[in-house]
Amino acid sequence: RPRLVPFTSVTVKRTGMATPAPPTPFRVEATDDELSDLHRRLTATRLPPNQLPKRAVYDPNGAWTGGTPQEEVAVLVKHWKETFLPAFKKVHLPKLNALPQFLSTVQVPPDEVDPRSSTESLQMHFVHHRSSVKGAIPLLLVHGWPGSFVEFLELIPMLVDGDADGNAFHVVAPSIPGYGYSDAPKQPGADAAFMGRAMDALMQQLGYAQYGAQGGDWGAIICQTLATQYPRRCVALHVNMAVTMQPQDLPGKLLMLGRIPFLGSRDRRRLWATMYFLMYETAYQAAQGTKPETLAVGLNDSPAGLLCWMLEKVHTWSDCHRGGEALAPGQREWERAVPRDALLLNLMVYWLSQSTSSSLRLYYEALRRHPHSREWLAWDSLLASADYCPVPTGVLCGATEILQPPRGWAELSFNLTHWHDSQCKGGHFLAWENPDAVAADVRQFFHGGANFDRGVKLAPSRGARRPNAAMQELLLFAMLVAVVAWWLFSEHVADVSTAVLALIGAA
């Protein structure tokens, strides 16, 4: 029996907001029928009868050319069916419920400066783990795609318990609306800015008037929009994927272009890695950003299809291609970054909640590649621009992160106060691959650099501009005036000289 997508079509009509209910405890559950159905589907997996011909030239970044190899799918389907599923309730399900989780109805407000923006009442799922350490900082952790709160199962206890110096956090790790056990938005316009407003509404509802935020992938983008919209609430930002778009102002655009010839060798390598990703690794964005419901039916109905689609991203984006420890017998290359049971645990969240379909919709709303978008320019276009993020910002970049902008570009998009460019082990799923490095850097940024305290005291208002932006605009205007004056003078200097000489001769 096909398993159809569990959401209705988006409607343009906006509904009124319901009264928020207090958070209620939540546990992930799986019925015997659900597990039996999954086992049956895995048993009935039908792999294609042929593959792409092998090529002598391989992807320089180590990715699978042509997509996920069938032998990888066969190995993991077999493990999922014969080893993981029989032990799921006793071994793996307790891991999903190891941290305190809740459901709460959240009122997502409209954007303060855009009355056309989407607003909705949603039930959100989140981990809320408070620290017993005095002086702990409220911290919002936001995952990305194809991740979930599973990415943070090891990181959260590290942050909550703190280190020897007592640097700890009260952690809130929500499931993005449409992901996992959070409601899928039913109104159009649920883009990254909408998700940022949903996160802030949740933090305010939990009593955190001011807090820090951390994220990677969509989590980094959502937290960036959150800090840009509410800089007096989200007072400090830490990301492990810095998205640097063109500044809104002309001097900023010229500075971004003007710094390219002066990039060092490391920055040139980082920029090339970013351009390589944009050229060869964004087909999934095109599919998910234009026709998500077409793709969703196959991924929601076939566990092998879901596995194949997400495994390829884990392999391509993680730090598993540079060698390191020798592989154990039967171990796959990508397991250097993420163990197979951890990967399957994340897939179980998508499968049991049937949220694969609604998770893809964020690409459709945020990338703006559809004809009825209110914006004329796609969000990921090279010409697209974004507001400056004025709160203190820290960046930690893994060795094989897919987007690696130069520091000089990041300074044009963020109030950059912390830049960790040691190329620590790890890739795009850094909190999953190397939670120790993320925990250490988050502590150093929020506690060691006093960025949270400074953000609370000096929280800027929305729309705060990049330092020296006004002076740069003035200098640019002065240069333009000087160029125009020079041109006018050079055009007419010969005529003026002739007239003056004629007057002298006549006298």
Q: Please, could you describe this protein's structure?
A:
With 507 residues, the chain is α/β, with parallel strands linked by helices. 44% of the residues lie in helices and 14% in strands. It is built from 18 helices and 11 strands. The protein has helices spanning 32-43, 70-84, 88-96, 155-161, 192-205, 218-229, 250-258, 265-280, 283-290, 292-301, 303-317, 340-353, 356-367, 407-413, 430-433, 435-448, 451-457, 469-506; strands at 24-26, 101-108, 120-129, 137-142, 169-174, 211-215, 234-239, 246-247, 385-386, 389-398, 414-424. Strands 1-2-3-5-4-6-7-10-11 form a 9-stranded mixed beta sheet, with helices on both faces. The protein has a two-stranded parallel ribbon with strand order 8-9. Helix 14 (407-413) links the parallel strand 10 and strand 11. Helix 9 crosses helix 13. The radius of gyration is 26 Å and the shape is globular. The termini are far apart. The model is unreliable at 5-18 (pLDDT under 50).
Could you say which structural class the secondary elements and strand pairing correspond to?
Answer: alpha/beta
- In which order are the strands of the major sheet placed? 1-2-3-5-4-6-7-10-11
Largest sheet: 9 strands, mixed
User: Which percent range fits the helix content?
Assistant: 40-55%
Q: What's the N-to-C terminus distance?
A: 106 Å
How much is the radius of gyration in Å?
26 Å
Beta content: 5-15%
Unreliable residue runs: 5-18
H/E topology pattern: EHHHEEEHEHEHEEHHHHHHHEEHEHHHH
Tell me, rounded to a whole number, the average pLDDT: 85
Silhouette:
globular
How many helices does DSSP assign?
18
Number of strands: 11
Kindly report the oligomeric state of this protein: single chain
